[in-house]
Structure formats: C-alpha cells, structure tokens
C-alpha cells in the first residue's frame, strides 16, 4: 500500500471542512480512515448512554458517507498506541493525520502517541486553536471580555475549502470490528446523529425567521420556545465544523438587515467564542478539571438527600424540577436551564459543583469537558469570569422570566398541568381550594420546596462571604 495515510478520526466525525482529512488526501496515495474505540472512555464513570448512542450513530453515519465514496471506516478497539502501531505494520502507511484534543485525558493519551508513532496534528476542536489567543506578554487570558476582544482582533479563521473527491481509495480487506450496538434509549432524544443532519440544522437555523439566528438574541433564554440552534451535540463530536459555524455567524452579522438580526448574529457568535474560551482555559489550566480555578474554598454541605432530590427533579421548585426531568428524558438541557439548576445546587443546597458537573456528564448528549466544567464553575463562583458569589438565581423569578406561561413546566411536570399560571412557578403558595380544583395537593402530588429560598440565600451568602479574599 504505497504512500497510504491513516486518518485517525476522533472528535471530527465529518468529511466536510476537515483539515486532517484534507491534509491526508493532499498527501496522495490510499486513505485509511480509522476510529479506535477506547474502553477507558466508553466505560468511564463520566460516560453517558445518550452521548454514547449519539456518538455511535455518528460513526455509522460517517461510515455510510465513506462507503458512498468507495471507502469505509476501520473500527479498532483498545489502546490507541497499540492499535495504530498494528495498523501501521499491516498497511505500511507513511503517516497518521489527526485533530488534537485538549482534555487532560486526551493530552496524556496523545503525548504517548506522539512519542511512539509518525503522527501529525492538524486542525482544532476550537475556532482559533488553543494557544493562539494570548495577552501581549504571552500569557493566557483568564477573563472572557478581553479574550473575546483579542479573539476578534485575530485574522478571520478559515481554511482552503476543498472539494471532496467522489471516490476515495481505501485498501480492501483491512481488519475492522463492527460498530457496537447503541445503548437502549428513550425515544425522547431529539437529535439525529451525523454530518448530514448537522448541516440541515445549521441551514434551518440560518433560514428560520422565528427561532433562527436572526431572533437568537431575543429568544435564546426562553425555555418554552425553540430559540436555540440545537447544534451543541454536533459541535461536540465535530459532525459540524466549528469553522463552518463561525462562517455562518459572520455572514449573518454582515448581512443583518436590522438591529434585532445584528444582535442575534452577535449573540450566537458570542456563544461560539465562549466555547472557544473554555477550550483554551482547559488547555492552559488542566487543573480545572478537578479543582477550582479561583481559590474560593467553600464549605460545601453535600447533603446526599438534597442531591438526590435535585437529580430526580423533586426539589419543589418547578423550573428546576422540569429542567432535571427533561435532562433525564432527552439527554439535553437548555443553557438557561443549566444555569438555573447549577445555581440552585451550588448556592441553595451548597452541594459541591463537581457533583453536578459529573451528573451532567453522565447524562448530557452534548457533554463536553471544557464547556461543562467552565459553566459549572461559573455558576458556583469558583471559575474564570465567575458569577459573583452574591448572585444567587431565584428559581421562582427565573421561571417567571423564561417560562412566563408555564408551558415548559407543564410539559415535564404533569402534576402541575392544571395549576393556574399565577401559581405555576410557586405552587406551594396556592390556597387549598385551588389545589383541590387543580388536582395538585402540595406534598402529595408535587413536593413542597426542600429549602426556603430566602433562608437558603442567606446561608449561601454567609458560606461564601467567610471565604472571600480581603
């Protein structure tokens, strides 16, 4: 197999806008696309059945796209160094091309590969690759606003778009395992895996008048409306190129015909920059994976029963409970809901943010180490750009603001379906007669609040104030 090149597929499950694949094709010869299943990830305590099913579906989709061009995806299982070494021996390939990753686990794994095999790292899971956005003195940014300013000042990211050949030359008969069966899941998961679906969603997000990028700024915090792109799982696994997402945001910004459309495009671009920011933070400060970014050692109470109520959506606060039950049913949670439930766990219940971060990773279809860690530490007040310790979301007013008619709550909490809107976010305030009419007796059909908001707020302020630097 003269001049064969291995394309090691990782978090880039796509054929389009793929720098590692492009470089492999430019080198000529045979292309050997390979994915190495690693049980250290598949059976990790942080693994999610939803995420695993989505990722395996992504492998099937990529394999189908490759087969339509005369190629196929080689599936191996085991330690990447050993499996890739065997594949090199089998094919006599001259190089391995792969996109780098930034999590501490990935960094350790990739150092071993780098020390043992002829690998070339091409591309990035971020728009501007980690290490490219630095202060004038060469240090990394640790707050978002100056990072975003420097990010925008760099030359617009992009690459030479190439036309994928209609036929790809891949040797026949290479050893390959079948793609494993996906874990059995609820039919509630709202995502179809694969690059084709990712591009379809991106196009829809661009074209929709309501709920698309033009109205993103005004609708993105509504729990009761489809105001987000729904692209996070596709970005997580590289079924959508981050550069393509950036290109759409930049084009929408330049083509905006009015102020709301401009704000929508700017807001979505800002979210993409936040994603980059957390990738860069994890790259520069891998310690955040298991510890506080800021030295703010709060004395967590870590009440197991309170944590269990939070996990199961039984806190007595409807917007919190509806969000947690949506997560359990679909493997996804709206970003505003993530902030509400994270604030509630860390501030109202004084449960360590790491407990919540782990729970999210065990359930989210789009669970990403960098974004999940960054978001949780922001809410807990321990991270970069952290929410001030005294910012404690009121779950009642958050519900009223972002689910004003209670549609989101009623969808996920059937016990509250007939509760009048004026009580939907604080059902314990319903008079007894209204409880009877609504068929919802508090503490019988729906739990009473496990903590009082005002009391919990005072307790959290005291716990955080004791540890504030002078």
SSE layout:
Layout: E1 5-8, H1 19-26, E2 31-37, H2 39-42, H3 49-67, E3 74-77, H4 80-91, E4 95-98, H5 104-116, E5 119-121, H6 144-153, H7 195-207, H8 216-219, H9 232-236, H10 242-255, H11 259-284, H12 304-312, H13 318-330, H14 335-348, H15 353-361, H16 369-380, H17 395-402, H18 407-412, H19 432-438, H20 453-465
Parallel strand pairs: 1-2, 1-4, 2-3, 4-5
Architecture overview:
The chain is mainly α. The chain folds into three domains: 5-123, Rossmann fold (3-Layer(aba) Sandwich), CATH 3.40.50; 195-284, Serine Threonine Protein Phosphatase 5, Tetratricopeptide repeat (Alpha Horseshoe), CATH 1.25.40.80; 304-465, Orthogonal Bundle (DNA Cyclobutane Dipyrimidine Photolyase, subunit A, domain 3). The chain is built from 20 helices and five strands. Strands 3-2-1-4-5 form a five-stranded parallel beta sheet, with helices on both faces. Helix 5 (104-116) links the parallel strand 4 (95-98) and strand 5 (119-121). Helix 10 packs antiparallel against helix 11 (259-284). The protein is globular, with a radius of gyration of 24 Å. It starts with a strand and ends in a 5-residue tail after the last helix. The model has no long low-confidence stretch (mean pLDDT 94).
CATH superfamily of the largest domain: DNA Cyclobutane Dipyrimidine Photolyase, subunit A, domain 3
Strand content: under 5%
What would CATH call the architecture of the largest domain? Orthogonal Bundle
Calculate Rg over CA atoms.
24 Å
Query: Percent helix among the residues?
Result: 40-55%
Total individual domains: 3
Distance separating the two termini: 67 Å
- Overall morphology: globular
Q: Which CATH first-tier class of the largest domain would you pick?
A: Mainly Alpha
Tell me about the largest β-sheet. 5 strands, parallel
* Strand runs, count: 5
Task: Detail the poorly predicted runs.
Answer: none
- SS-derived structural category: mainly alpha
Mean pLDDT: 94
Q: Please write the string of helix (H) and strand (E) elements.
A: EHEHHEHEHEHHHHHHHHHHHHHHH
Count of alpha/pi helices: 20
Using the coordinates shown, work out and report the CATH topology of the largest domain. DNA Cyclobutane Dipyrimidine Photolyase, subunit A, domain 3
């Amino acid at each position: 197999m003269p001049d064969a090149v291995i394309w090691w597929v990782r978090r880039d499950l796509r054929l389009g806008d793929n720098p590692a694949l492009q470089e492999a094709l430019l080198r000529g010869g045979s292309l050997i696309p390979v994915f190495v299943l690693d049980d250290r990830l598949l059976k990790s305590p942080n693994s999610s059945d939803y995420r695993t099913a989505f990722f395996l579906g992504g492998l099937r989709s990529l394999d189908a796209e490759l087969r339509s061009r005369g190629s196929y995806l080689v599936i191996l299982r085991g330690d990447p160094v050993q499996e890739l070494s065997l594949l090199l021996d089998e094919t006599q390939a001259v190089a391995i091309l792969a996109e780098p990753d930034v999590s501490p686990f990935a960094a350790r794994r990739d150092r071993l590969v780098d020390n043992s095999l002829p690998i070339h790292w091409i591309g990035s899971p971020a728009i501007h690759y980690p290490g490219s956005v630095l202060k004038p003195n060469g240090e990394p940014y640790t707050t978002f606003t100056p990072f975003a300013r420097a990010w925008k000042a760099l030359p617009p990211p992009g690459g030479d778009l190439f036309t994928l050949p209609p036929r790809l030359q891949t040797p026949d008969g290479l050893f390959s395992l079948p793609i494993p069966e996906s874990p059995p899941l609820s039919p509630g998961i709202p995502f179809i895996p694969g690059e084709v679906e990712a591009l379809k969603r991106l196009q829809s997000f661009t074209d929709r008048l309501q709920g698309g990028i033009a109205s993103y700024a005004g609708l993105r915090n509504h729990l009761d409306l489809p105001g987000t792109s729904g692209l996070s799982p596709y970005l997580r696994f590289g079924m959508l190129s981050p550069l393509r997402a950036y290109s759409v945001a930049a084009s929408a910004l330049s083509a905006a015909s009015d102020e709301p459309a401009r704000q929508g495009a700017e807001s979505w671009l800002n979210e993409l920059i936040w994603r980059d920011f957390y990738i860069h933070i994890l790259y520069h400060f891998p310690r955040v994976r298991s510890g506080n970014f800021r030295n703010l050692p709060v004395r967590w109470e870590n009440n197991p029963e309170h944590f269990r109520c939070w996990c199961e959506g039984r806190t007595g606060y409807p917007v919190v409970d509806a969000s947690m039950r949506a997560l359990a049913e679909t493997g996804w949670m709206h970003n505003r809901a993530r902030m509400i439930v994270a604030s509630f766990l860390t501030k109202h219940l004084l449960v360590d943010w790491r407990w919540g971060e782990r729970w999210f990773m065990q359930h989210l279809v789009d669970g990403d180490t960098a974004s999940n860690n960054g978001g949780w530490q922001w809410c807990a007040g321990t991270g970069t750009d952290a929410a001030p310790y005294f910012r404690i979301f009121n779950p009642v007013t958050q519900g009223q603001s972002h689910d004003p008619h209670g549609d989101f709550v009623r969808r996920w909490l059937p016990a509250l379906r007939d509760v009048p809107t004026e009580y939907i976010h604080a059902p314990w305030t319903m008079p007894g007669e209204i409880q009877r009419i609504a068929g919802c007796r508090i503490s019988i059909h729906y739990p009473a609040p496990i903590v009082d908001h005002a009391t919990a707020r005072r307790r959290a302020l005291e716990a955080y104030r004791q540890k504030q630097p002078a």
